[in-house]
């Protein structure tokens, strides 16, 4: 399989790298400390096409392939996990669900504002009582002749409080479990739809995460995204793409930890020489570099396959699983290489660790990825 980036993909990578270095990296520690959502960055990212990465130009998007989208997320993650997560969920979950499964009317209505950054998108599957097991979903959409009434709540929703356009999954046929879930699109101003206050998190602190509550929310039939009762089946296809992007985010964070470690190991002297001359440090650097290279191959192998329109359930799960765990190992070693300085906020490596931890949890935990992979291998 050819994993060479095209000239266009390399140009997008350079654009994202320059943007991340100039606009994101210098401010990331402050956003991390305050947990403040970087609103002023959204128009700048929109100008570069980052708010509509894979959405076609006719809906104001950048019309990029998934490989380019992954490159953007990787570069942004090197500077700030929070901004990478914002882009990953806005693009890869909300907008993508509307584009892949929405009607032409829904695409025209919602995508231009999302892709131009005028509106932020959120996508809500998880609930307080159901995460890995979506069949335990309690949010119910009850049909009547004019549409549906939805009651329930959603947990850990990225852009949950700052979002404007929401794709929300609700059970329409509870007896059919996962095969009875439907996706609905709605705007923030919908009566009965309320956001909780932003969660105070371990990492990705400047990405907005909030609960949603739905109390007698009225929606019309034309707000169904895709087909009735097929919302979870469509979700699995969305996650096949989303997991590649979370893998790219993990890769970026791991690479940032490696770069910081190489720099520090060459500067820091103990016993009269740079610590990079000690074999214990060299082996850590060698392990980090090798595992991240393996992660890169898995992430971009999956991205190239997706870009060709192939199914990547297995490859996406493997990419996300390996990249997120490799990133955590790399960040852990980076903290160790920095010694006491790795444990304080003056150096970025502890932030990389906190941000990378999300990649082992969001869009399916590492345990869930292993379940997906084992099912494919065992043919169960
Ligand atoms: C910062 C952040 C942002 C998020 N953004 C969104 C979002 O935008 N939209 C959204 O819908 N969700 C979002 N999530 C939710 C995320 O997808 C869930 O947290 C995740 O899927 C895990 O669900 P849970 O938290 O309910 O954990 P649980 O499912 O309760 O799992 C708890 C533990 O049990 C393990 N476990 C569960 N089942 C099994 C099993 N069968 N075998 C082995 N182990 C198992 C899990 O792996 C985990 O270790 C976000 C979460 C975070 C932290």
Mean pLDDT rating: 97
**What's the count of strands?**
10
CATH class of the largest domain: Mainly Alpha
Number of helices: 11
Pattern of helices and strands:
HHHHHHEEEEEEEEHEEHHHH
CATH architecture of the largest domain: Up-down Bundle
Write down the domain tally: 3
Proportion in helices = 40-55%
CATH fold node name of the largest domain: Butyryl-CoA Dehydrogenase, subunit A, domain 3
The biggest beta sheet reads: 4 strands, mixed
- Content-based structural category: alpha+beta
> What percent strand?
5-15%
| Contiguous uncertain segments of 5+ residues | none
Largest sheet, spatial ordering of strands: 1-4-5-8
Query: For the terminal residues, how far apart are their CA atoms?
Result: 27 Å
Q: Mind explaining what this structure looks like?
A:
- The protein is an alpha+beta fold.
- It has three domains: 7-115, Butyryl-Coa Dehydrogenase, subunit A, domain 1; 121-228, Butyryl-CoA Dehydrogenase, subunit A, domain 2, CATH 2.40.110; 232-378, Up-down Bundle (Butyryl-CoA Dehydrogenase, subunit A, domain 3), CATH 1.20.140.
- It is 51% helix and 14% strand.
- The chain has helices at 7-24, 28-34, 41-47, 66-79, 81-101, 104-115, 231-267, 279-307, 313-337, 349-357, 366-378, and strands at residues 121-124, 140-143, 147-158, 165-171, 181-187, 193-195, 209-220, 224-225, 269-270, 273-274.
- The site of flavin-adenine dinucleotide (FAD) has 21 residues, from strand 1, strand 3 and helix 11.
Characteristic terms for this protein:
380 residues; alpha+beta; Butyryl-Coa Dehydrogenase, subunit A, domain 1; Butyryl-CoA Dehydrogenase, subunit A, domain 2; Butyryl-CoA Dehydrogenase, subunit A, domain 3; 3 domains; 4-stranded mixed beta sheet; 4-stranded antiparallel beta sheet; 11 helices; 51% helix; 14% strand; binds flavin-adenine dinucleotide
């Amino acid at each position: 399989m050819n994993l060479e980036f095209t000239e266009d993909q390399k140009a997008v990578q350079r654009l994202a790298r320059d943007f991340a270095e100039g606009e994101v990296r210098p401010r990331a520690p402050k956003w991390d400390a305050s947990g403040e959502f970087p609103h002023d960055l959204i128009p700048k990212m929109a100008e570069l096409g980052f708010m509509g990465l894979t959405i076609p130009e006719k809906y104001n998007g950048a019309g990029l392939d998934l490989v380019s989208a992954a490159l953007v997320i990787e570069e942004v993650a090197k500077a700030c996990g929070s901004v990478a997560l914002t882009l990953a969920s806005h693009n890869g979950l909300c907008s993508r669900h509307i584009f892949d499964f929405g009607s032409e009317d829904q695409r025209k209505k919602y995508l231009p504002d999302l892709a131009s950054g005028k509106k932020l998108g959120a996508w809500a599957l998880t609930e307080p009582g159901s995460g890995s097991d979506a069949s335990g979903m309690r949010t119910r959409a009850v049909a009547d002749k004019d549409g549906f009434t939805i009651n329930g709540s959603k947990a850990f929703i990225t852009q949950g409080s700052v979002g404007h356009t929401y794709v929300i999954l609700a059970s329409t046929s509870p007896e059919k479990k996962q095969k009875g879930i439907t996706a609905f699109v709605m705007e923030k101003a919908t009566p009965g739809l309320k956001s909780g206050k932003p969660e105070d998190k371990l990492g990705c602190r400047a990405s907005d995460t909030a609960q949603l509550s739905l109390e007698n929310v009225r929606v019309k039939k034309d707000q169904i995204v895709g087909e009735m009762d097929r919302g979870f089946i469509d979700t699995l296809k969305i996650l096949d793409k989303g997991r590649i992007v979370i893998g790219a985010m993990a890769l970026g964070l791991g690479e940032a930890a490696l770069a910081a470690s190489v720099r520090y190991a060459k500067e820091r002297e103990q016993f009269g020489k740079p610590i990079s001359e000690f074999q214990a440090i060299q082996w850590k650097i060698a392990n980090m570099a090798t595992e991240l290279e393996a992660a890169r191959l898995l992430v971009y192998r999956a991205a190239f396959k997706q870009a060709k329109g192939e199914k990547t359930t297995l490859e996406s799960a493997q990419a996300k699983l390996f990249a997120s765990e490799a990133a955590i190992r790399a960040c852990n070693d980076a903290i160790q290489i920095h010694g006491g300085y790795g444990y304080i906020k003056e150096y970025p490596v502890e932030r990389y660790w906190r941000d990378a931890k999300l990649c082992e949890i969001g869009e399916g935990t590492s345990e869930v990825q292993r379940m997906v992979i084992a099912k494919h291998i065992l043919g169960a």
